[in-house]
């Protein structure tokens, strides 16, 4: 059955059921029908009270079942896919960057790679790499590298890779970046300013096919 027809059918059935319940309650009220009542009608239990009691009982039952399900041990999940989390940074607020990295550090996904690419390699950008090493475990756990250029620039004053091709030095630096990103769980690369797209390209290019998914 198409989803549109199913939606219309659900609306019609729900509306009819509500109309039947309302008509029944009104009829019981008009006729004065009561299941139980005292002699002076100080206390009575009619159809409306029965519906309310049933509604309260069902709510309590479903709440109990949901609470029981939430408290039961979670089924073990077999996560066989590898994931890399890429963070682009450009003159970030130190407190916000530190909070971001601390939040990332608490992620429990097994084997998660974290790649921070800083858009800028000037001395005043160094604080972002320092924060990364501080939060992610220092030089022992978090590898870092300052790249004079980026994948589309050799870091020269002219910008871009001259001579219609890539110099050996530029290719070696690009290979170092790839080895760092693929060989460490946490890695940080400071590169020549090139905008957010250049930062994202560096993360994607360095990771290559070493992971299944990139976030």
Shape: elongated
Please give the count of helices: 7
Query: Strand order within the widest sheet?
Result: 5-6-4-3-7
> How many E strands?
7
Stretches with pLDDT under 50, minimum 5 residues: none
Q: What is the quaternary state of this protein? A: single chain
Q: Quote the distance from N terminus to C terminus.
A: 36 Å
Radius of gyration: 32 Å
Largest sheet data: 5 strands, parallel
How much of the sequence lies in strands comes to 15-25%
Overall average pLDDT? 86
Proportion in helices: 40-55%
Q: Could you give the order of the helices and strands?
A: HEEHEHEHHEHEHE
Structural class: alpha/beta
Description:
It is found in: Membrane. This is Hyaluronan synthase 3. This protein has 215 residues and is an alpha/beta fold. Helices cover 51% and strands 16% of the residues. The strands form two sheets. Strands 5-6-4-3-7 form a five-stranded parallel beta sheet, with helices on both faces. Strands 1-2 form a two-stranded antiparallel ribbon. Helix 3 (94-105) links the parallel strand 3 and strand 4. The two termini are 36 Å apart. The mean pLDDT is 86.
Key features of this structure:
7 helices, five-stranded parallel beta sheet, alpha/beta, single chain, about 220 residues, two-stranded antiparallel sheet, elongated, 7 strands
Helix-strand blueprint:
Layout: H1 3-31, E1 34-37, E2 44-46, H2 47-71, E3 83-89, H3 94-105, E4 113-119, H4 126-136, H5 138-141, E5 142-146, H6 168-183, E6 186-191, H7 196-207, E7 213-214
Parallel strand pairs: 3-4, 3-7, 4-6, 5-6
Antiparallel strand pairs: 1-2
